[in-house]
Design a protein that fits this description.
7 helices, mainly alpha
C-alpha cells in the first residue's frame, strides 16, 4: 500500500524545509509535529533569552519571577518618582506631609519595618487617583 497524496506532500515539504535550513528531515518533522516540545527545549536551554513565536499561538517569553518584595520595591520607586501626586495622596489619607522628606521618611520607615499593609494602602490610593485622573483627562480630550 502506497502513501496517500497528503502524506507525499507532507514528506516533500519536510524535505524542502530540511534542505532550506540545513537540518535533518527528522528534526524538521519533530518541529512540525510538536512545537510545544521544541518550545520547552528552547526555553529551558537558557542559552538564548529571546522570546519564541509559535504559529497560530503567539509569542512565548520568559518573565523573571517577581516576589512580593520585588513588587513592593518597584511600587515604592514609582511613588517616589511621582512625588507631587504621592504627597497629595498621602496628605489626603491623613499622613502629616510637610514635603518630599516626609513622604520618603514614611515610605522608608514602612519598608524597614515591613509594614506592607501601609505600603499597599498608599499604593492602592495612588492607583485609584491616577485612574480617575487619566479617565478625566481622556474625557476632557474628547
Amino acid at each position: 500500500m502506497g502513501a496517500t497524496p497528503e502524506e507525499k506532500i507532507h514528506r516533500d515539504l519536510l524535505k524542502k524545509l530540511a534542505r532550506k535550513y540545513g537540518k535533518d528531515r527528522r528534526v524538521i518533522d519533530q518541529i512540525v509535529q510538536s512545537p510545544f516540545l521544541l518550545a520547552r527545549k528552547v526555553i529551558s536551554d537558557n542559552i538564548d533569552p529571546r522570546p519564541i513565536r509559535l504559529r497560530y499561538f503567539g509569542i512565548i517569553a520568559l518573565k523573571r519571577p517577581t516576589s512580593k518584595i520585588d513588587r513592593i520595591e518597584k511600587r515604592i520607586e514609582i511613588l517616589k518618582e511621582r512625588m507631587e501626586q504621592t504627597m497629595v495622596i498621602m496628605d489626603s489619607m491623613g499622613y502629616m506631609i510637610k514635603g518630599p522628606e516626609s513622604v520618603n521618611r514614611i515610605l522608608d520607615e514602612a519598608w524597614e519595618t515591613k509594614d506592607f499593609d501601609k505600603l499597599e494602602e498608599i499604593w492602592d490610593s495612588h492607583c485609584k487617583v491616577m485612574y480617575t485622573l487619566n479617565k478625566w483627562r481622556k474625557k476632557k480630550k474628547d
